[in-house]
Amino acid sequence: MDLQTTIYLVVGASFALYIGIAIWARAGSTSEFYVAGGGVPPVMNGMATAADWMSAASFISMAGLIANMGYGGGLFLMGWTGGYVLLACLLAPYLRKFGKFTVPQFIGDRFYSKTASTVAVICLLTASITYIIGQMTGVGVAFSRFLGVSSETGIYVGMGIVFMYAVFGGMKGITYTQVAQYIVLILAYTVPAIFISLQLTGNPLPQLGLGSDMVGSDVSLLTKLDQVVTELGFGKYTTTTAGSTLNMFVYTMSLMIGTAGLPHVIMRFFTVPKVSDARISAGWALVFIAILYTTAPAVAAMAKMNLIRTVNPGIVMQNASPYNPESQIQYEARPDWMKRWEKTGLLKFEDKNGDGRIQYYNDKSKSEEFNAKATEAGWKGNELTVNADIMVLANPEIALLPNWVIALVAAGGLAAALSTAAGLLMAISAAVSHDLIKGVFMPDISEKGELMAGKIAMAVAIVISGWLGLNPPGFAAGTVALAFGIAASSLFPAIMMGIFSKKMNKEGAVAGMLAGLVVTLIYVFAHKGIFFIKGTEFVDLIGGANSFFGITPEAFGAIGALVNFGVAFVVDKVTKEPPEHIQHLVESVRVPRGAKAVDGAHAH
Q1: FRET pair for 236, CA 20 to 30 Å: which of 47, 177, 349, 424?
Q2: In contact, 31 and 388? CB cutoff 8 Å
Q3: Cα distance between residue 500 and residue 589, in whole Å
Q4: Strand partners, 220
Q5: In angstroms, rounded to a whole number, what is the distance separating the alpha carbons of residues 396 and 537?
Q6: Assign residue 234 a region: left if phi > 0, alpha if psi is -120 to 50, beta otherwise?
Q7: Are 32 and 160 in contact (CB under 8 A)?
């Protein structure tokens, strides 16, 4: 069976499975629509949480970023994993005990203010819609290559699939669909990694293969990779950092606290029967997440090695000089996998010196010696541009793995993007229908009316996110990093102060959320362009690119969080403290007794 037919069969079967589950588990009440009736077993909830949390950025983009950045890309591993632990230990059990559906509902009740709830909805919508852009970008990347359509058409198809199982199934349908999606995506990630680890190192465990010697050599994979990339003018793979040490630290912190403030992940802890189940499901989710996250560094290094070996096999296999074409093997024509990916526009080859060969190197190297050698060899600039988002998806093709493995990776990439998109849409739907319409504008709305409002809100969010996905501000993981920064600067401090500071009042919380959100958005928009219209003229408004101590916009969320905390505490000091019953409520939430049932309206 040819590759394209295999891909159609595998991806089609996975879509049929998701839609079938959604029809079987469709929601009939608001409780089922928002929190799956609160009856999901902890292990299954852990699996669904892992699928919800491991987005297109984790599956498609993260290993590609690590492959490009080297050691510095580890900040994504540390930030996202550390943030999940922070969420599971510090926030989730208390929020679950509070007994509400959503983050804005918690903030509105804790800070005894509909204004606080409304501001929280604005923050949630901003973060969630930005996050969905990254998922839609990932959907477009996967569809454009594997289904032979443009990325725009791929996004439209993805919107249709998500609409079918998210709008009709609600949280109940989404949860059981995400269990299936987790199984698909983890097999799609680990199976190719095992194959490639065996090819390169002879070790079937990628985690161990990363530190093993290459087949037929006494040189380790990482040592060889360091040697190869430095020969091509890049920095050492094992030591290169993401900008300054300060930026790397702040970037990691932004991802960490942004993770802990993500509303769609927090909602997962309301789908289990008891508080103790929330803790158990958090532990299981961490196990399920760790399978992919411990594999990602190996996938990144092996993908980088395979790419260079494909383009310039002599430098890898024979230790030949890259500057002398006569001393090494080189491809006279591009391999088939490159031609397939060129059609997507995510991989580009331009023969600048007209020799028919691919010169892949760092033409912006700061080494004068390297630049002199490159000029002497007749090189006229790097000729190969590879988008970070394709490294994981293209890796099985580069390694010439069987067609069924390539098809499985296609299904896995789509599962990762669609599962997180569904969770985000659920958070958006709940925020609009439950927190805004029922909580603020129409308190007497019927359950049926609220359910319909939630479905309409989700449908509108799908259309908006699809449009933004067609006009993204950057690659998938970069866009997702912006979403984490927004969550970090707005929601995380309010949730933390709501749980751990009984003296924090509504004026402080509202002022803090607005200040953190506005400061972060100004810094991001100045770099990315207003309404995601790319341009550099806005950067001058803040004194130039990365003008705040060299911190990049993706890392600025942690600074926004500090602004949020600072403004909140200053305003709190000059306004009156919360009512007595609110202070008692905060104390009772932190007491590990008397778990409260979730009904969306009352804490029993």
Answers
A1: 349
A2: no
A3: 10
A4: 213
A5: 41
A6: beta
A7: no
Q: Could you tell me where the beta strands, DSSP code E, fall in 350-430?
A: 384-386
Is the pTM higher than 0.90?
no
Q: Where do we find the tokens 């297109």? A: 56
One-letter amino acid for residue 346 of the chain: L
* Residues whose CB is less than 8 angstroms from the CB of residue 243 and which lie 6 or more positions away in sequence, other chains included: 72, 251, 546, 550, 552
Domain ranges in the chain?
Answer: 3-302+397-497
List average pLDDT for each run of 10 residues in the chain, which is 604 residues long.
Answer: 84 82 66 56 83 76 85 86 83 75 82 89 84 75 73 79 69 76 88 92 92 87 88 85 81 87 73 74 87 92 88 59 50 73 82 80 83 83 84 86 88 78 77 79 81 82 79 57 84 91 93 93 70 50 67 88 96 92 84 52 44
**Residue owning tokens 């003296």:** 503
- Residue 330 and residue 94 in contact, taking contact as beta carbons nearer than 8 Å: no
CA–CA distance from 434 to each of 105, 208, 427, 442, 452 (Å)?
8, 48, 10, 10, 11
Nearest-angstrom CA–CA distance, 456 and 458: 5
Measured at the CA of 181, the angle between CA 176 and CA 186, to 5 degrees, comes to: 135
Tokens linked to 483: 């979403």
3-state SS, residue 386: strand
Q: What is the distance between the alpha carbons of residues 456 and 460, in angstroms, rounded to a whole number?
A: 6
Q: In which element (H, E) is residue 463 found?
A: helix 447-470
Q: SS3 for 288-335, per residue?
A: HHHHHHCCHHHHHHHHHHHHHHHHCHHHHHCCCCCCCHHHCCCCCCCC
Rounded to whole angstroms, how far apart are CA atoms 415 and 21? Answer: 14
Tokens of 40: 């999901």
Closest CA to 112 of 388, 504, 556: 504
Task: Give the span between the Cα atoms of 350 and 330, in whole angstroms.
Answer: 16
- If you count DSSP H runs as helices and E runs as strands, how many of each does the chain have, helices first? 27, 2
Phi, psi of 385 (to 5 degrees): -115, 120
CA–CA separation, 107 and 491 (whole Å): 9
Kindly state which CATH superfamily the domain 3-302+397-497 is placed in: Sodium/glucose cotransporter (1.20.1730.10)
Q: What secondary structure does DSSP assign to 82-102, as a single string?
A: HHHHHIIIIIHHHHHHHT-SS
For residues 58 and 89, is the Cβ–Cβ distance under 8 A?
no
In 3D space, the residue among 115, 315, 134 whose CA is nearest the CA of residue 230 turns out to be 315
